[in-house]
Amino acid sequence: MAGFVELTDAIGGVPVCLNEPVRDSYSGVNLPAGPQVVSGAGALAFVRQRHGLADGDLDRIARQQAFAAGLARRLMTAGTLTDPAALQRLVGVVTRHVVLDDGWDLDQAVGQIGRLSGDDLTFRTIPTGRPDLRTPYDGIAVQVDPDEVRAFVQAAFAPPGSPAATPAPSAAPRTNAPDGPVTVEPAGTPFSPTPTRTPTPTPATGPPPVISAGGQTCVN
Fold this sequence. Notes:
Layout: H1 2-10, E1 14-18, E2 22-23, E3 30-31, E4 34-38, H2 40-48, H3 57-77, H4 84-97, H5 106-114, E5 122-123, E6 133-134, E7 140-141, H6 146-157, E8 211-212
Antiparallel strand pairs: 1-4, 2-3, 5-8, 6-7
Helix pairs in contact: 1-2, 1-4, 2-3
């Protein structure tokens, strides 16, 4: 966490945008709505909040993606990679707090980042069902459909214009009873819940946003 704070300070903060003002005693976040630049402890609180958000951890994922997109945009447009002093500060933070593979080439990594445009870096979240799925052993989980996830990944990596790049509409989310038994089966096994009463889906507030470093997406 100290490294995260130092990183944001080393690059002069990261641009983010909030749909609504937020204040949360758990994470310590206290930020207004709209576009803004966060750094230090405020940036750490921004990416840590999940209490008080409609979709909890899923909204926090969107926060972290928006932060990563803003960080990349800052690196690509603020001259950080071409400013020797700024680059040295950034490298100093990374080498103190991040474990790197042997043989990792800093110059090569900087060159690769420098050749990117914002639209080359896009963040997506796999499709999910109910966020309060009860499991026999691990408490509450986020529900996923292996077939939907497989189709999502194939579409994400398919060449533009190919049939696989346009996934078929997904079926309605599959649900289990909130407080009934849940059948846990291997991936690929047909879904066969055995609820004790009619399931009550917990709808999300909407599909997760597609976040790109090419623009600024406001998040919850």
